[in-house]
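Problem 12. The chain below contains 356 residues. Write out its predicted structure in token notation.
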Amino acid sequence: MSSPPSKVPVLFLGATGYLGGAFLSHILTTEFLREKLEITVLVRSPEKAHRLESEYKVKACIGSLEDTDKVEQLAEQAHVVCSLANADHIDMTRAILRGLKKRHEKLQDRPVVMHTSGTGVLIDPRYILGNHITEDIYSDLDVEKLAAIPPQAIHRPIDLLFLDADKEGYIRLVLVLPSLVYGTPSGVLSQTGIANKHSSGIPGLIRAAIERKRAGLIGAGQAIWNHVHIDDLVDLYALIATKLLTEPDKVGLGREGYYFAENGEYLHYDLTMAISKALFGLGAVESEEPVRFLTEEDVQAGALKERYLGASGTNSRARAERGRLLGWTPKKTIEDLWASIKPEAESIIQEMRGSA
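Solution.
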């Protein structure tokens, strides 16, 4: 990413999503990155493609992740792929790698992939009922422990495809693994309606609670995850991108290219009760007391209906040491997480009423 003398061609996937839109906003409003990078985005909406081109001067190609021939062609034209669209899309991943391998073979170029995975990969499947707090904490500097993550873990099949490509030598991989991401992005794309302003985890739990008329809690809620605010997460992406352009030798790659994103931990019980109290105070649920899912059968049945419920019984504990060594200094704390719940609930209630 440091070698080309002119603008670096970048394929950016996820430009209108929550995280992708926030990171792209940062690039577009940061003079150094805007001048160094030539961005091409893949978006489904012709209207948003037009706005991105006319208002923000990025190249826009209309299509979806399912258009694998298009993804492959765009990847072949890119020295950098920012993959922020889907952590589990295997056909998209293979298309990206086909394109980058062609580029490598033609140009002897070794493109960079910044792929977004997630700390869900750290979940121990033995503990899903919310009754166990694990002492097992992963550092993103512990290369051997990270290499031993089971291949069947969530997100892991995609991570391994990228890691194998890095090992083969035709890409350089940066693997960013956010924990629970929360907060409203401050970026221009979400503020102007081009990008999604809601994350998936907490809003998913809020929507499900409203539909059920009660929040949901797995077991006793005695399991732990990390959290990170969207603006802090964007700062991590921007720092990595800047270092790749200015001091590439300082950026870990491949097996040493894991970057966790976290700034503390929370109990699932505390998160569920914060959501429940906020919704009860807003008149959106019938009781502050959540519905309990106590057996494995209950959890599996509930998780089939509610995408984010299942994670609430699990542990995912990480320490973002590599990013901090690079200079990342997240500012938002657990108090900011709690303060975000009510405004998030109010926004979602308004949206659900508007679509009813």
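Discussion. The mean pLDDT is 95. Students who got a different answer should revisit the alignment rule from Section 12.3.
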